[in-house]
Amino acid sequence: MEWLIIIGLMLLGTFLIVAEIIFVPGTTVVGILGFIFSAYCIYLGYDYFGATTGTLILLGGLFLNVIALIFAFKGRSWERFSLKGTMTGKYNDDYKFELNTGDKGMTVSSLKPVGKAIFNDQEIEVRSNGGFIGENVEIEVLRIESSKIFVQPVNN
After folding, report:
1. What's the CA gap between 16 and 55, in Å, rounded?
2. Cα distances (Å, whole numbers) of residue 80 to 18, 90, 121
3. Over 90: is that where the pLDDT of 122 sits?
4. For the segment 53-64, what is each residue's pLDDT rounded down to a tens digit?
5. Are 139 and 149 in contact (CB under 8 A)?
6. Structure pTM?
7. Which string of DSSP letters, residue by residue, matches 63-77?
8. With contact defined as beta carbons under 8 Å apart, do 13 and 41 qualify?
9. For residue 18, what are the contacts with CB-CB under 8 A and spacing of at least 6?
10. Which of 59, 101, 125, 152 could lock onto 91 through a cystine, CB 3.0 to 4.6 A?
């Protein structure tokens, strides 16, 4: 029965460590749990069977973790979960907008500092000068630099 507990804890710990590195990097909770299960398995090995067998369980656990990581990286199992496409376009690249400095429009979303606004029934991505502009606020165009449109709220 003790061997089943030790083997089960070691396999669970190894699985959680591999899952932390390959599938959910950065959460650390899964990796810490895997380390705790593996360490407890080694402790039980020393406690149940003595120093010699405990050391063999320690070395076996290290070997198992290294082999599991090697197979996980060579098997490229993480590629099924990774993004393969890249975004190359920008929001305003496809539009031919007829805007000039001083034109007035209305924000559709809040600008933090980038958001959307409507000018001449056309939705366009705009930027504030770094400040926050709320939703449904009347704005005017300050300047246009290539496809970047800088706006400010209209002061009534």
Report:
1. 22
2. 15, 27, 42
3. no
4. 999 999 999 999
5. no
6. 0.49
7. HHHHHHHHHHHHTTG
8. yes
9. 34, 65, 68, 69, 72
10. 125
Give dist(CA 28, CA 38) in Å, integer: 15
Instruction: Note whether 111 and 132 are within 8 A (CB).
Output: yes
User: Whole-angstrom Cα distance, residue 148 to residue 60?
Assistant: 59
Q: Are 119 and 101 in contact (CB under 8 A)?
A: no
Instruction: Take residue 90 and report the two structure tokens written for it.
Output: 């920008």
Torsion of CA 78, 80, 85, 91, to 10 degrees: -100
The string of DSSP letters for the chain reads: -HHHHHHHHHHHHHHHHHHHHHTSTT--HHHHHHHHHHHHHHHHHHHHH-HHHHHHHHHHHHHHHHHHHHHHHHTTGGGGTS--------GGGG------TT-EEEESS-BSSEEEEEETTEEEEEE-SSS-B-TT-EEEEEEEETTEEEEEE---
Distance of CA 4 to the CA centre of its chain: 37
Q: Of 4, 21, 1, 11, nearest to 61 (Cα)?
A: 11
Number of residues in the chain:
156
What are the tens digits of pLDDT across the range 9-44?
999 999 998 888 877 777 788 889 999 999 999 999
